[in-house]
Amino acid sequence: MPLEALIAEDEELLRQSLVEQLGRLWPELKLVAECEDGASALEQLAEKQPDIAFLDIRMPGISGIEVARALSELSPRTQVVFVTAYDQYAIDAFEQGAMDYLLKPVSDERLLATRERVLSRLPNTRQDDAVLERLLQRLGPSQAADRPPLAWITASNGRDTQLIMLEDVVYFRADNKYTTVVTSAGESLLRTPLRELLEVLDPQHFRQVHRSTIVNMKAVAAVSRDDTGRGVLRLRQRPETLVVSQPFMSLFRGM
Questions:
Q1: Are residues 164 and 109 part of one domain?
Q2: Are 162 and 123 in the same domain?
Q3: N vs C: which end of the chain shows fewer Cβ within 10 Å?
Q4: What is the pLDDT of residues 42-83, one digit of tens each?
């Protein structure tokens, strides 16, 4: 039975390039999912349970490292290969943690070497959570230095344009090509798709909990599970509850 793999890379050209390289250099590997962000990667990993996951580190909202951390619940046997454009500081972190990684642009030689390392470990389980946690801590300073998070947005409410501070947002909800911004005072419409918002929101405070929902964790009063394993968020200043789709519940470990 052929090995199965998933690719998560938000840049389409780079994703297609890796698909082409794997087709040439690892033709017996079966690609079962190509994902453009961490949210879809979580969902596909839970459904497909592939042997290998090629995860871009920097993706909007949910990073590749966060996806990897969720694998112990979603797909424990999946081996991780990080795909990165990081500098030498981060490469040192990967090597000290003995993690498999591919440096963009991916060379044929590097991909062949990674293939041999992954095959030598299969069918053993993936790297443990402690290794991933150490890697996340080492990469943290370089990720945080990229750019300051967004502090405020402008949104439409009827004929009015409102300035809304991010700290006042309870959650964002996808609304066709637009996004509904929900505060304790009401709702407004933002002309920015949810996926683009993920690139500018502070990941320390705003978390994607469903394909169509991003929540301000400061506005969450409690997290619970129903009988199906699906999560439910109770909010501090709003009467409604928010659904956390089952794959995203793995991001709430330790809460």
A1: no
A2: no
A3: N
A4: 999 999 999 999 999 888 888 888 898 888 888 888 988 989
Whether 211 and 132 map to the same domain: the answer is: no
- What is the per-residue DSSP string for 148-215? PPP-EEEEEETTEEEEEEGGGEEEEEEETTEEEEEETTEEEEESS-HHHHHTTS-TTTEEEEETTEEE
CA angle 189, 190, 194 (to 5 degrees): 120
Tokens of 212: 């169509």
What would the two tokens of residue 149 be?
Answer: 């998070």
**133 and 166 part of one domain:** no
pTM for the whole structure: 0.77
User: Nearest Cα to 37, choosing from 22, 52, 58, 68?
Assistant: 58
Dist. CA 9–CA 16, nearest whole Å: 9
